[in-house]
Task: structure prediction
Amino acid sequence: MRNQSSVIEATDNEKKAILQAFFNSTQQYQVLLNKQLEIVDFNDCALTFHRINHKSHLEKGRNVLYYINTSLAKDFKVQCNKALNGEPVEYEHFINGGWFHFTIAPLHNPDNKIAGLSIVGNNINNQKKTARIIRRQSEFLSNIAQFQSHQLRHPVSVILGFVNLIKEEEDHSLKMEYLRALETATKQLDEIIRAIVNESRAVS
Result:
């Protein structure tokens, strides 16, 4: 029969196991640091991230700067210091062909004093791709507006002018001449529309 202390210990271990399972259940990169920027804990996603992108293995107790590219370490430390002063920091970083969004936030103890930091990261490639498509579509629509006010209006006005002339003209030979000019203007308009359609396919 277990004594009371072993029961409490088992309960604490069970709580730790539940917390670790919860920690690992998310697809977010999560690392916890103490105030000296030493790694207190991390989840499976963070472990995999560093293994794939940095060819390194996260270890508890090691300073997180060990895992940061030398060229980025100075700025990263500045961002961590901001968070240690109570100011959460957000930034985006391009790593090995992918965009990631990171948040560095202060962690508070029961006395509401800052005890360390949490780093949470998300892969935002899809959001970046969507943003690029929306930006390109917006530029395309802007170009269409300019097309409408300049290149489209001219052949349309020419076509409408020849239609009115044909309606009013009684001379058959002149009507045929107007029809030929109307056909030319219509083909020009068709070429412009085809160019617009092709460009719209390129941005979709």
Q: What stands out?
A: The first strand starts at residue 29 and ends at 34. The beta strands are 29-34, 39-42, 89-95, 98-108, 114-123.
